[in-house]
Fold this sequence. Notes:
Strand 7 and strand 8 form a beta hairpin. By secondary structure, the protein is mainly β. It has five domains: 4-96, Immunoglobulins (Immunoglobulin-like); 98-189, Sandwich (Immunoglobulin-like), CATH 2.60.40; 193-284, Immunoglobulins (Immunoglobulin-like), CATH 2.60.40; 290-382, Immunoglobulin-like (Sandwich); 387-543, no CATH class. It has no helices and 50 strands. The relative contact order is 0.07. Strands 2, 4, 5, 7, 8 and 9 form a six-stranded mixed beta sheet that branches. Strands 11, 13, 14, 16, 17 and 18 form a six-stranded mixed beta sheet that branches.
Amino acid sequence: MPGKKIHNGQEILTVGTIHDITWTGTGTVGNIKIEYSINSGDSWAVIKDSTENDGSFTWAVPDTVSDHCLVRISENDEDGTPVDTSDAEFSIISSTSASLTLTYPNGGEQLPVGSVQVITWKSTGEMGEISLEYSADNGVNWTVIVESTANSGTYDWTIPDAISNTCLVRISEVSGTLSDTSDGVFSIIQQPWIIVISPNGGEIWEAGSVYPVTWQSSGDVGNVTIEYSINSGDFWTMVEDSTENDGSYDWTVPDTPSENCLVRIKGSTDAIIPDTGDAVFSIVSPVSPLLTIHFPNGGETLIIGNTYEITWSSYGAVGEVKIEYSVDSGTNWNEITAAAENGGSFDWTVPDTASDTCLVQVSEIDGDPVDTSDGVFTIAAPSSDYIIVTSPNGGEVLSAGTSFDITWDSSGDIQTVTIEYSIDEGVSWAVVVTSTAKDMVPGNLFNVMSCPDRKWRRAAKTSGPSVLRRRRLFVRRTPSHSRIIPIPHHSLSVCSLGDATRTGRPVCVRTRTGRQSIVSEANYVLIFFFSPLRVSSRAFAAKKNNK
């Protein structure tokens, strides 16, 4: 039977086991003599008086227990030279002194499913390979971890999905009777986990702005570490070394523009698998604030003394705005208001400064950003005949089937109007409504336009719904005469709507003071409109005037 080689001291040999005593030599050496001592060399006992000098001898360890053992080898001649002795002492122990002790897991531990844990043990005496098992029911049943592995003192164990609070590990000699079991039960628990929710791919975050990094977690995660990468995860930069695991962290995005950004969140221990966003997101440089004037923006005629709504839109961080106008193409500017809320509109009563080279300018009160009308408009005296469409007047988005306010200003001898629309930039026109009433009262008059379900020009988008783009609508005169009499309630809503042009058909409207029914008569035509943006309605009655 092959035995272990005695190298040169500090070994532990068990009584009755077989070992190889090994040596090397140079020169001409004949047979050799092998001896051992159990008292540090004070006395010697012969193992083999003469044996061939082949470098190895198989030794059955005698029953001479000691911690101060040595082996000596010499040439078998008269003077006994050359000779060599073990460099250090070794031990011979009783066969009953061999032991095997499990040290981890040994009770009270919590081992997450999927994690790798190192089973450790200690052994004494001569021992071959060992086997490892675990139990999830306090030792009633056992499952093999490994049938046979070297007695090295450690074994890497990937924790199985066997969640339990009554687990044990058992270690045993493969060819012997020694074994040991965990001193107490331990737990196999669900692996704590973290999932990044945002940013998780496709987002565009602006440098300098604050965005919430969000995540979900389960189990004992502890505080979390947040990192980000701008090169798809090749290198990571710390966002927060340790923050409470509350699912959200407000991150001021750094000025590191990239289209290959990721966020990674890690738990408090290496046993918790970190999570990274599923796909890259983008960090972009800050976008400069922007103001855009919509009305008046060129080509309009505004009547002195009338009130118009200057409209604009803004992007980015824009505070209060200053509004000015010019009557000389921008050479000189006159203040309309020094500070107005950036709400997108401002009511302006047109001053008595007639000109056909007028502009409006809107700027943040500190001067930047700023926008000016794209083209000049006209401020005119109210003496001449005119009709001016005020809404829709460019830039609006109308949805087919919904209602929209058509508004206009008029002055002079304009007695009837026809409303038409075009979807081909004025090449052809379709009638919306023709008025036959007499003696029209000038001012803001309203009508319903139910957007026609036609093939209007669409703006193509790579994703999401398409939107309808309208062309400018014009109001034209007709040769008849009429008078419009407003119903004396500023805000109305239609409860039920019949064919208002048919005599005797009641139409119910809701006013600020309650509901009322209006019955169409032979000399009335009811014209209704509804404003979905303002969530309010108005109604007007057009009365035939026979005088």
